[in-house]
Design goal:
The structure is a single chain. The protein is α/β, with parallel strands linked by helices and 555 residues long. 28% of the residues lie in helices and 24% in strands. It folds into 3 domains: 133 residues, Protein tyrosine phosphatase superfamily (Protein-Tyrosine Phosphatase, Chain A), CATH 3.90.190; 254 residues, FAD/NAD(P)-binding domain (3-Layer(bba) Sandwich), CATH 3.50.50; 142 residues, FAD/NAD(P)-binding domain (3-Layer(bba) Sandwich), CATH 3.50.50.60. It contains 16 helices and 28 strands. The strands form 8 sheets. Strands 6, 7, 10, 11, 12, 13 and 24 form a 7-stranded mixed sheet that branches. Keywords: FAD, Flavoprotein, Oxidoreductase, Quinone, Transit peptide. Its cofactor is FAD.
Amino acid sequence: MKIRTMTADMSVSAQIAASDLPAIRAAGIRTIICARPDAEGSDQPGFSEIEAAARDHGIEAHYLPVEPGVVTDAACAQFDDLMSKADKPVLAYCRTGMRAAALWGLSEASKRPLPEILAVAKAAGYDLGGLGRRIANGGKVPVQIAEASHDIVIVGAGAAGIATASSLLARDGSLDIAVIDPAETHYYQPGWTMVGAGVFEPETTAQQMNAVLPRKVHWIKAGVVAFEPEARAVILEGCRVVRYRKLVVCPGLKLDWGAIEGLPQTLGRNGVTSNYRYDLAPYTWQLVRELKGGRALFTQPPMPIKCAGAPQKAMYLSSDYWQRSGRLEGIDVQMFNAGNVLFGVAEYVPALMEYVERYEIGLNFGYNLHAIDGPGKRATFRRTLANGEVETVSREFDMIHVVPPQKAPDFIRVSALADAAGWVDVDPSTLRHKTHADIFALGDVTNTPNAKTAAAARKQAPVVAHNLLASLGKLQGEASYDGYGSCPLTVERGKVVLAEFLYGGKIAPTLPTWLIDGTRPSRLAWLLKERVLPPLYWRAMLNGREWLAQPEIVG
């Protein structure tokens, strides 16, 4: 965390953590303003966490969420009002500090000349040149003008986006491709379960974005605000426009931590953790190691979620550790699942039930986590009964692993690309948009009925690459995605139930069953999860090497 001074009364910074508050207080800051919406990134602490820590250090905290590229006149006026009333100095922050700097610059548009505003921002390390016309125009939004144009534009540089870019370049190295993503770090999210079990170090699951992006792509480091499919345009933060011939949409999911009352305020403290966030997975392992007895709860929200087996993986690996260390008899392990089954593909349930019985786990189906009282160590669940009434149940806990509800990002849900439920509306076989023929989508953001896993993205990327190039007349035939997904269910340290299936839950083992029978726990499957899949991800999938992922071509 680096504080960048704009004026004597105003500074900005990138995302801060609760642990930064002592240093912020020591720097003399009296008020902080959060300009970043909650749940914007996988490694982002919520505002409530920051607010609670700020209160402990005598600092006021205000929440002024600004979507990337949507610094409205109203937001600027509210920022100006906060600045006029706040105890100073003030620190405003967002993901990188850019939105905070923009709020300051635009709110100052009627008070300072443009050159001075730009110079102050530049000295602090922020280029507000893209807002020059708006600042000069009294803060009003300028007319949109195309900034760039590319043959192929990919929104999102997660597993799906980078794999697709690499698959395209593997087929035609001359392609002009731009990838849009504001993140500086790329995460191997399937590894976070292993971090939470003390198997992987967190650093092994992260790399700098510029190290994993294909060299030939143009990286547009910005957030997407909106789409104009009729104009073949993507609108970026700062009102910039990027045009395309073909568009690939794969920004992933939004984790809705705020949907559970009290959760943002207690995440990462009071025994409340989640392997669904990079910075919290190590806390899971800490809690597991330190728990000597009491009650451990594991929750799973309504579908869809990314990697539906992840909530169970945390539960099994934690229980295995407690059993090996002789503590399990003193720990009451309970699973609260909003669904009605342990796993969606029935063939894998018997093997999982053996471990449920081994660890004496209590299964509670139909229960959705509604609220958490962290200091009080109490979780509240809701369940809809057969007669339609809603039952509320509270349980005390010593440790709780939470999985938040998940949905498509806001800019997707409100766009013309989304179906009624907010997911990108594509053909489940070709992954081409049902209405806009120049648009393809893959990964967690689509409405295809497959499991939302990295394994699914690995199979989808070559399909999109082939069909996109076919639409440009560069390839023949049509590639088909069969719904493949995979979930290596880590039932104990050293054994995995390797679930692989297609659309409709049809089992689809990649390797011969005499080698790995996915319906039974396997040592070899564990070695695959621990030793093979991480390098396969970093060195093959993200580099266009489609081992066992070549698409089926029809016609």
